[in-house]
């Protein structure tokens, strides 16, 4: 059995180094995208299982988030409707003098989403400075980097936000589930994390509020979001959120174990993950899913 497992690991490593795995994964993805209508359930499975090429990411996310219809025969009319709604919201904000040509894409997208949801306040500058909206802007900023056009950034950010709101994730529950994973996989690390904590919780609420935006380097974040989007839209709920949190904590283990105080641990958990830990994290995450 050990020999078989070793041989399997060798083949897996060889395929990755030779690029064979990526070629096969891209072929499977292209085949799924060539169907009409596209099987969204299959795309969700692929998002969780493969390394998504950067060239495919925007199209995939638009499909799984319902921006681009699965049936290409109605894509043109849907696109026209979406363009009209985008232009109406943007024009309204311009008339209200809340945005202009100098406004950043992130601020524009954020104000458009707040306006559409009926959540835009009179003092919009104060609202943009609030902790909740600052977190949203971190998330929406990622969509602005992924999308090739502002209109697509708006729809990606809007549908992602609306979908996550509908799922009603409770950050306290997510932290509790992460703790349960650590109890099983690394109880010593868990003991270090909760030592000195009055309520025994782990100080990672901001990770879940941000879906790891500004926590992970963007190159790693996008690959994590591939899995989160595939899992959440594919009805796997919070599995990838808690698994990712656990793996990040394990990657930070040396620094956490050496910390002299709870304040030092909190500081470690509020810093971006070092770039050199991103690749090991992704390799572990791929094996975990």
Structural description of this entry:
Residues 51-232 form the Rab-GAP TBC domain. Keywords: Cytoplasm, Cytoplasmic vesicle, GTPase activation, Lysosome, Membrane. With 289 residues, the chain is mostly helical. It folds into three domains: 2-64, Orthogonal Bundle (Arc Repressor Mutant, subunit A), CATH 1.10.10; 74-167, Helicase, Ruva Protein, domain 3 (Orthogonal Bundle); 171-288, Ypt/Rab-GAP domain of gyp1p, domain 3 (Cyclin A, domain 1), CATH 1.10.472.80. The chain is 72% helix and 0% strand. The chain has 17 helices and no strands. The chain has helices at residues 2-18, 20-34, 40-49, 54-64, 75-95, 105-116, 124-128, 131-146, 150-167, 171-185, 187-194, 205-210, 218-233, 239-251, 253-258, 262-269, 278-288. Helix 10 (171-185) crosses helix 11. The chain is globular and about 55 Å long. The chain starts with a helix and ends with a helix. Mean pLDDT is 89; it is low at 1-20.
What distinguishing features does this structure have?
TBC1 domain family member 7; 289 residues; 0% strand; Arc Repressor Mutant, subunit A; Cyclin A, domain 1; Rab-GAP-TBC_dom; Rab-GAP_TBC_sf; 72% helix; Helicase, Ruva Protein, domain 3; mainly alpha
- What is the tally of beta strands? 0
Q: Report the structural category.
A: mainly alpha
Distance between the termini: 22 Å
Q: State the fourth-level CATH superfamily of the largest domain.
A: Ypt/Rab-GAP domain of gyp1p, domain 3
The CATH topology assignment of the largest domain is: Cyclin A, domain 1
Radius of gyration: 21 Å
Percent range of helical residues: over 70%
Overall pLDDT score = 89
CATH architecture of the largest domain: Orthogonal Bundle
Number of helices: 17
Q: H/E element string?
A: HHHHHHHHHHHHHHHHH
Look at the structure and give the CATH class of the largest domain: Mainly Alpha
Q: Which stretches are poorly predicted, pLDDT < 50 over at least 5 residues?
A: 1-20
Largest sheet: none
Beta-strand proportion: under 5%
Coarse morphology: globular
């Amino acid at each position: 059995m050990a020999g078989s497992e070793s041989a399997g690991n060798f083949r897996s490593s060889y395929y990755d180094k030779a690029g064979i795995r990526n070629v096969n994964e891209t072929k499977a993805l292209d085949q799924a995208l060539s169907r009409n209508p596209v099987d969204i359930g299959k795309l969700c499975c692929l998002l969780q299982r493969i390394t998504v090429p950067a060239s495919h990411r925007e199209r995939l996310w638009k499909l799984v988030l319902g921006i681009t219809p699965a049936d290409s025969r109605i894509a043109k009319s849907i696109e026209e409707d979406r363009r009209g709604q985008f232009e109406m919201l943007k024009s309204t904000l311009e008339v209200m003098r809340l945005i202009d040509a100098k406004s950043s894409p992130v601020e524009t997208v954020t104000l458009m989403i707040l306006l559409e949801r009926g959540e835009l306040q009179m003092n919009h500058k104060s609202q943009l400075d609030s902790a909740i909206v600052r977190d949203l802007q971190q998330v929406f900023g990622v969509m602005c980097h992924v999308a090739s056009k502002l209109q697509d950034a708006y729809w990606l950010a809007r549908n992602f936000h609306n979908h996550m709101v509908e799922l009603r994730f409770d950050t306290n529950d997510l932290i509790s589930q992460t703790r349960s994973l650590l109890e099983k996989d690394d109880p010593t690390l868990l003991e270090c994390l909760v030592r000195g904590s009055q309520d025994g919780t782990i100080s990672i609420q901001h990770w879940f509020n941000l879906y790891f935006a500004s926590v992970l380097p963007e190159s790693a974040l996008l690959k994590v979001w591939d899995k989160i989007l595939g899992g959440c839209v594919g009805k796997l709920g919070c599995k990838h959120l808690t698994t990712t949190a656990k793996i990040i904590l394990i990657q930070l283990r040396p620094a956490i174990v050496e910390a002299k105080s709870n304040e030092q641990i909190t500081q470690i958990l509020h810093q971006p993950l070092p770039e050199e830990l991103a690749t090991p994290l992704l390799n572990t995450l791929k094996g975990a899913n």
